[in-house]
């Protein structure tokens, strides 16, 4: 009889990381008069972005950092967005710039990403930072969601992931690809699965670590998962329920998979909170680099 999985507490892990960040922020203020600043650029309305931005602004301030939000109308031109980013690139109070994705269809997201100064690219989406991650350059700015997953996995495995069979489901530049790079760097044997993968359930059953990042509600079922596997659920899906409300579910069928896995992240309270904590961490690291001072963060 399989015991129910350990539930990895992303909220608690995020609280600890934010506490460490806050201590570093006050040290930087004392020692160097440096106050890390983050600018978030939002174009139009998106439900997922709203959840994120609501929590982010408060947590940035709570860590003692400067937080600025730029909310632009959905009809804004691409040129205006690029101009704002260019202004922020030159703003000495701002060390991190996050252009909230997705953007409206008439805006070329890749162009926006490539306009952000690589030094201020706290999302780690700029090709220079993606390339540094792929090359294993120490200190590359790494995308926040995969970085948050990695921190939780390292803690769960007491720092040693080497030799684990890791499956990443999803191949986006934002989560899947950087997650695979990070796991490879930890000496995992990495598989990337996607919509064209043949017999995904069978591929999944071979994995010791599963990272689900596809955006399909409850896609990973209990009988896809090897007994004892560790399952990280990156999905944030809003399902409508009666009364006009919505329920947040991941890409993993939690009630089934928690009967089989040895550990699992819940949604909410798993990867999401760690994503924001990693954004604060990246902003402090970016600020230190721009100021030419050293940084004491994991
Ligand atoms: N440039 C860019 N960078 C991003 O990192 C980015 C983005 N654009 N666009 C939108 C997505 C989404 N995302 C979330 C992060 C945290 C939670 C989060 O904290 N979720 C809570 C749930 C909050 C609730 O209860 O609704 C949790 O999982 O516990 C959610 C969503 C970052 N994103
Ligand atoms: Mg677009």
Automatic annotation (TrEMBL):
The pathway entry for this protein reads as: One-carbon metabolism; tetrahydrofolate interconversion
CDD domains of this UniProt entry? Answer: NAD_bind_m-THF_DH_Cyclohyd
Q: What GO CC terms are in its UniProt record?
A: cytosol
Q: Which InterPro entries match?
A: Aminoacid_DH-like_N_sf (IPR046346), NAD(P)-bd_dom_sf (IPR036291), THF_DH/CycHdrlase (IPR000672), THF_DH/CycHdrlase_cat_dom (IPR020630), THF_DH/CycHdrlase_CS (IPR020867), THF_DH/CycHdrlase_NAD-bd_dom (IPR020631)
User: For the Tetrahydrofolate dehydrogenase/cyclohydrolase catalytic domain, which residue ranges apply?
Assistant: 8-123
GO BP field: L-histidine biosynthetic process; methionine biosynthetic process; purine nucleotide biosynthetic process; tetrahydrofolate interconversion
Keyword annotations from UniProtKB, A to Z:
Amino-acid biosynthesis, Histidine biosynthesis, Hydrolase, Methionine biosynthesis, Multifunctional enzyme, NADP, One-carbon metabolism, Oxidoreductase, Purine biosynthesis
Q: Which GO MF terms are attached to this record?
A: methenyltetrahydrofolate cyclohydrolase activity; methylenetetrahydrofolate dehydrogenase (NADP+) activity
Instruction: Give TM regions.
Output: none
Residues forming the Tetrahydrofolate dehydrogenase/cyclohydrolase NAD(P)-binding domain are 143-290
Q: Give the superkingdom in one word.
A: Bacteria
Q: Which reaction does it catalyse?
A: (6R)-5,10-methenyltetrahydrofolate + H2O = (6R)-10-formyltetrahydrofolate + H(+); (6R)-5,10-methylene-5,6,7,8-tetrahydrofolate + NADP(+) = (6R)-5,10-methenyltetrahydrofolate + NADPH
Q: Which residues bind NADP(+)?
A: 170-172, 236
What's this chain's function? Catalyzes the oxidation of 5,10-methylenetetrahydrofolate to 5,10-methenyltetrahydrofolate and then the hydrolysis of 5,10-methenyltetrahydrofolate to 10-formyltetrahydrofolate.
Describe the family membership recorded for this protein in Swiss-Prot or TrEMBL: Belongs to the tetrahydrofolate dehydrogenase/cyclohydrolase family.
What is its quaternary makeup? Homodimer.
The name on file for this protein is: Bifunctional protein FolD
């Amino acid at each position: 009889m399989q015991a129910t999985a350990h539930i990895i507490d992303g909220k608690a892990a995020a609280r600890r990381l934010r506490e460490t960040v806050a201590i570093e922020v006050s040290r930087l203020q004392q020692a160097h008069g440096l106050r890390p600043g983050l600018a978030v650029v939002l174009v139009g309305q998106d439900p997922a972005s709203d959840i994120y931005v609501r929590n982010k602004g408060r947590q940035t301030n709570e860590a003692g950092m400067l937080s600025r939000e730029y909310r632009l109308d959905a009809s804004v031109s691409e040129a205006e967005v690029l101009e704002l980013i260019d202004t922020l690139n030159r703003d000495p109070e701002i060390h991190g710039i996050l252009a909230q994705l997705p953007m409206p269809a008439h805006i070329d997201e890749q162009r926006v990403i490539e306009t952000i100064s690589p030094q201020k690219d706290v999302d780690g989406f700029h090709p220079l930072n993606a390339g540094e991650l792929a090359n294993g350059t120490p200190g590359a700015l790494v995308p926040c969601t995969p970085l948050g997953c990695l921190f939780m996995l390292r803690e769960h495995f007491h720092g040693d992931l080497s030799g684990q069979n890791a499956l990443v489901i999803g191949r986006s530049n934002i989560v899947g690809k950087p997650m695979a790079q990070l796991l490879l760097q930890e000496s995992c044997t990495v598989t990337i699965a996607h919509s064209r993968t043949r017999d995904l359930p069978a591929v999944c059953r071979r994995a010791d670590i599963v990272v689900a990042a596809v955006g399909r509600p409850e896609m990973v079922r209990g009988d896809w998962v090897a007994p004892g596997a560790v399952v990280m659920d990156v999905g944030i899906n809003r399902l409508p329920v009666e009364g006009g409300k919505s329920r947040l579910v991941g890409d993993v069928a939690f009630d089934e998979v928690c009967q089989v896995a040895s550990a699992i992240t819940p949604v909410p309270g798993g990867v999401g909170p760690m994503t924001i904590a990693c954004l604060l961490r990246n902003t402090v690291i970016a600020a230190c680099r721009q100021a030419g001072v050293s940084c004491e963060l994991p």
